[in-house]
Amino acid sequence: MRYFGLFILLVSFTLVLQFKLNIAQATFNYKSCTGDNYTANSIYESNLKLLLSSLSSFNTRPNNTRFYNATAGSSPDRVYGQFQCRGDVTFDVCNSCVTIASQEIELRECPNKKETIIWYWECMLRYSNRSFSSIMQLNPTFRRLNSGSVTDPDRVAVGDLPRLFFNKIGGRVMKPSCQFRYEMYQIYNSKVDEPIAPPRVSPPFTRGQKKPSSKVLIITIPIVIGVLFLSSTTIYFCCRKKMKYAIDEDVNEINDVQSLQFNIKTVRDATDNFSDANKLGEGGFGSVYKGSLSDGQDVAVKRLSKNSAQGVCEFKNEVLLLAKLHHKNLVRLFGFCLEGDEKLLIYEFVPNSSLDQFIFDPIRRTYLDWQRRYTIIGGIARGLVYLHEDSRLRIIHRDLKAANILLDAEMNPKVADFGMARLFLLDQTQANTKKIVGTFGYMAPEYVRQGRFSQKSDVFSFGVLVLEIITGRKSNQSVNVDDILLSYVWRHWEKGTALEVLEPVLREQYSRTEVIRCIHIGLLCVQADVAVRPTMASVVLMLSNYSVSLSLPSPPAFYFRRESNIAPREDEANSAGSSQLIAPYGSANRSTCHSINEVSITELHPR
């Protein structure tokens, strides 16, 4: 029975492999991504998904055609689509090619574009926000374009060949309405699917004709049932074995974490029973104490308060994440303690406290010259690259701020506090949440408004942090619109006076090139459009390689400007001047006036 089950699996694998080989018959040639961008989660995107589903699900065989037009939605968000297959390809190859094209055209080849054409050697698929049915279109052209004044696209394609491929033994021209190719070898299939003949009508049954043999049914049905039963049994035991391996892996992971567990007596002895003399700081999560283990190792103990927002789930999350992370710019976890009501995290002791204790302190800010600040910026960037790309996991921090950057004895930065971090799958790019957590002033606009977060959310927080390090100003301190950090920096950047935002204690000795470049990078990171923000890997490259050119930034997210040509309302008659607050760039409705407090959608407390 075991060998028969193995035989069934082998046959199934062969059939699946054959199916995949058939599906993979699509040779990519060229793509054209034109038109405007559509907004994610918009009506147009929904209509596009319906259209591509309709195109890919259309079965060419029973319809005896290799061409299909479709539309989805209504104006102004209607989407027009079409596919064409070569006349010499089989119906199955045509269907497979269209299926692949439908998947690739939106996800990988031309994301967020309203008008796209993708050419494979076997088929062509296109969609647009305007109707193109029965319209000859010569643009764009794969290779070059020579439209002339002809009216037949075939003539255009053929006419292009002598000019484009002179003295060449092969070539092709591909246009939206046709394509042409020549080679020194056969490039078409000599055998194609024949049109499906209409079903034959069976003659009426008459006496004297033999009915189907009951012996055949008696033999066939048990065989089919037996094969299905054996296949199901084999699959069940394989899945059960796989599940056992997964459980064993989870147990090993738990054992690895449990090996880091401290008992409460050890922690109490190390901190002198959580003495106030050993307290390093306090926040919304609880308190941090300095401790000394029996071997002389200094540690920092994070003691979560009983009413802390970080519950057992977040606590275990931080333990599981930090236990697997090892980088010089990330704080190192020594262990944890979870006994009774106590939830404790034991970290390496970082003697110089957190970054905010330096850049916002009128005395200690003088300890950080420009070279140290520049080194801190680079170290934070490398730590985030490790989280986003280089570690075995893909982690979004979600609460990057100056208070969560610790400084060691050499003032090297270490990213800390992973209680709000989220783990991404290898192919995952973004996620949604209904619970907005973090610190006002550091959160990206798409996270504040829609609960969407990604690596680019951390990039936004990093950009705010860079501007804080350069200016010595807090991003969330001022209630005066003109003094909001992002608006303040952008106005000076726009006027060409960017160096005036530099922290006054740094103006005697600094690198002009490095300061300008860091301000430029900071502004790129805080762009309202997620797609425009660089990745952290790109940021590290920008900081280390000055030959890398930087794109021009647009006004940052949450940027407020004042316009003097707008008449004030009656209830604003007592306000200063005749200026009016204009909605920030990147907001959903720029014609509506907002106050600064409306940026946040929930009450947030720094942790």
From TrEMBL:
Membrane topology of the entry: Single-pass membrane protein
Q: Which of UniProt's keywords are assigned here?
A: ATP-binding, Glycoprotein, Kinase, Membrane, Nucleotide-binding, Repeat, Serine/threonine-protein kinase, Signal, Transferase, Transmembrane, Transmembrane helix
List cellular component terms (GO).
plasma membrane
Sites where the protein binds ATP:
K302
One GO BP annotation is: response to oxidative stress
Q: Where are its TM segments located?
A: 216-239
Q: Where is the signal peptide?
A: 1-18
Domain Protein kinase span(s) in chain numbering: 274-547
Pfam families with a match to the protein in the record? PK_Tyr_Ser-Thr (PF07714), Stress-antifung (PF01657)
Taxonomy, superkingdom:
Eukaryota
- Compartments reported by the entry: Membrane
**Entry GO MF terms:** ATP binding; protein serine/threonine kinase activity
Q: Which residues form the Gnk2-homologous domain?
A: 26-132
**Principal location:** membrane
Q: What is this protein called?
A: Protein kinase domain-containing protein
Species of the source? Aquilegia coerulea (Rocky mountain columbine)
Instruction: List the taxonomic lineage.
Output: Eukaryota, Viridiplantae, Streptophyta, Embryophyta, Tracheophyta
